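Example 9 (inverse folding). The structure is encoded as follows.
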């Protein structure tokens, strides 16, 4: 991997994003439309350049793979699921994921497994391939990157995330939801009941 080229591509990408945002703000200012702070814009970041800690408390909107269309992802679990499913479509990555099943663990539970029964909040990636989703945003994205994508050799530098910050939600009249409430709601949506005999 040519790191100098990657860094230059990221520089160009960030400069284009800054120019686009500044041009839009200038146009809004000149037309008298600016009545909220600069923070009231939707953000886009490359998964490789943004820290999972920075995304905690933010609301995800969509994910993009390379230059392509944005795919709506209203929760961080949906972001993780979409990223894993898209990576899993590549046969070599699928093979690596399957080899990693049951061998990727956190402190108390399996992170990547073949059965939903071995997880608290299983996120289905494929048949017999599940990712543990019972984490806050920061921990889940760290697990996704450090315990699954990197060991599987996935180049996630072209994956982008579009999200909205808390300040934006308040400025737009959206009541921010504490992250724990969001996690509990997602658990209810994703819970796979385990039948006992």
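The amino acid assigned to each position is listed next.
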């Amino acid at each position: 991997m040519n790191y100098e080229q990657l860094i230059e591509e990221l520089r160009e990408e960030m400069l284009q994003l800054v120019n686009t945002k500044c041009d839009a703000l200038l146009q809004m200012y000149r037309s008298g439309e600016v009545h909220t702070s600069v923070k009231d814009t939707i953000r886009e970041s490359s998964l490789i350049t943004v820290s999972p800690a920075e995304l905690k408390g933010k609301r995800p909107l969509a994910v993009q793979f390379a230059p392509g269309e944005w795919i709506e992802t209203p929760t961080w679990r949906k972001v993780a699921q979409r990223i894993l499913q898209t990576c899993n479509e590549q046969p070599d990555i699928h093979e690596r994921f399957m080899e990693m099943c049951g061998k990727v663990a956190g402190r108390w539970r399996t992170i990547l497994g073949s059965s939903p029964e071995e997880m608290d909040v299983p996120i289905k990636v494929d048949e017999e391939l599940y990712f543990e989703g019972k984490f806050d945003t920061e921990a889940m994205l760290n697990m996704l990157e450090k315990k699954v994508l990197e060991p599987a050799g996935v180049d996630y530098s072209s994956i982008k995330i579009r999200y909205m910050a808390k300040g934006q939600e308040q400025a737009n009249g959206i009541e921010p939801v504490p992250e724990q409430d969001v996690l509990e709601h997602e658990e209810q949506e994703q819970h796979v009941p385990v039948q006992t005999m």
